[in-house]
Amino acid sequence: MKTISVLLRFLQKKSKVYSDSIKIQTTSWSQSSKEISEVRHKVFVLEQSIPSEIEMDGKDSDCIHFLALEKSKPIGAARLQKYGKIERVSVLREYRTKGIGTAIMKMVIEKARDLDIEKIYLHSQMDSKNFYQQLGFVQHGKTFFEADKPHIEMILK
């Protein structure tokens, strides 16, 4: 896969098509809960051992969702709270380091800006901090624990 050229083409066109076989779409919980849940269950519950009752927090129906698909297979997801908090950013292990997470985040940020959200922020797991810094987020505050994992609040500058 020509990750860099495909990612640049995606960012320049602001298209939802990531490559010939991968697309990223804005969706709702009612439309795509099955696909979104599949990605998040694999990443958060199975891989990171986060209890499913924490992962499924009952807030999904109030969020704007983003779903990455390879053909019809769900491979990544994220959600945006209407007040500007980005949550549940997840990409299946075998698709990481291919620019998919970056492409998802660019779409989330673009949507937040389209909605005139002034403060765009997230709670990053510490091992993902550099990923978000590369997207323009800066650390705000001290480390805290969420789902028994160290996190840091990060704000988009």
How is this structure best described in words?
The chain has one domain: Aminopeptidase (3-Layer(aba) Sandwich). The protein contains five helices and seven strands; from the N terminus they run αβααβββαβαββ. It has helices at residues 3-13, 29-47, 52-55, 100-114, 129-134; strands at residues 22-27, 64-70, 73-80, 85-91, 121-125, 137-146, 149-156. A seven-stranded mixed β-sheet has the order 1-2-3-4-5-7-6, with helices on both faces. Strand 6 and strand 7 form a beta hairpin. The protein starts with a helix and ends with a strand.
Please outline the helices and strands:
Blueprint: H1 3-13, E1 22-27, H2 29-47, H3 52-55, E2 64-70, E3 73-80, E4 85-91, H4 100-114, E5 121-125, H5 129-134, E6 137-146, E7 149-156
Question: Could you give a short description of this structure?
Answer:
The protein has 157 residues and is an alpha+beta fold. It has helices at residues 3-13, 29-47, 52-55, 100-114, 129-134; strands at 22-27, 64-70, 73-80, 85-91, 121-125, 137-146, 149-156.
User: What is the radius of gyration?
Assistant: 15 Å
Number of domains: 1
Structural class: alpha+beta
Relevant CATH superfamily: Gcn5-related N-acetyltransferase (GNAT)
Please give the count of helices. 5
- String of helices and strands: HEHHEEEHEHEE
Strand content is 25-35%
CATH topology: Aminopeptidase
Distance between the termini: 31 Å
Any low-confidence stretches, pLDDT <50, length ≥5? 1-15
Task: Give the spatial strand order of the biggest sheet.
Answer: 1-2-3-4-5-7-6
* CATH architecture assignment: 3-Layer(aba) Sandwich
Mean pLDDT: 90
Strand tally is 7
Quaternary structure type: single chain
The CATH first-level class comes to Alpha Beta
Describe the global form.
globular
Largest sheet: 7 strands, mixed
